Amino acid sequence: MYAREIKRCASAIAIFFGWGFVMHATGLLLHEFGGHALTASIWGCGISAYGLTFFGHGQVTRRTCDDWSMTGILIVDWSGLVFTTAVGAVAAWVLHKKTEWPPLWRLLVALVAFFFLLGQLGYATQGGFHDLFDPRRSAIWLGKHGVHWLAWVPTMILYALAAAYCARAAVDAFRAHFGAKTRLGTFGYLASTLGVAGVLYFEAFRIEWQIRTDLAMRGVTEKAERIAEATHGPPPFPIHLVLLLIAVAALVWALARPVTPEGRNLEPREPRELPHGLAVAVALSTAACFLVLLLLITRSS
Fold this sequence. Notes:
By secondary structure, the chain is mostly helical. Helices cover 72% and strands 3% of the residues.
């Protein structure tokens, strides 16, 4: 019995880790190429270089020429965020419509919505708050007109709404698949599968962060801290911790809800087995994303 449970958890961890990689690779390509590079080619002179990672950040560099307009620059700045956020919103809409899907399929779609919406809206909020990266020009302009709060408050509100919706959808699908009939049981399954996969992914990200010397893998928070140190200013306000608190609160709220809408426990049953077709689809998607990133990273180095 215990061997079967360990095997089930190990399989779930592998599925979630692979799906995390697929979401990162897809989101990275959508943001950098579907957003920045495409709009740079349409409204400007294209890009001169790009940098990608397997588990972390990415960037594109606009080509220098005389055809750039401020409108075109702003469109390119925001295109990655807008395009990738729109994909996350579509995933959330599909999740709302396709209620008849098997629980694990719904869970994977919920993770897409969660990852894309919170990742992009969180990035927009931090960048707007600190006047950095994609929202930088817009945030500086809004600050000059005395409404700097517009650079980050609306996106933080959207972030909170997305966190609540996606956390609830993910937890409900997780409960339905793993057969957890109590809140504590849901948390246990969640920590031992999705939580472990998240920790493993973060470790992979951290290792790549340390060994990649060809690309400056720097987030908004680290960049803001370095600027504060260089200018001998006070430490920047940790807006990223506020976002983290919002996400954790949304997850806690979703876990604290009754297991069923009526507040009754589910009948005891065995967790569903992982669908073979889904496992194959995730494995093939992971391999395809790895090969695409490998090719692009090799060509850019």
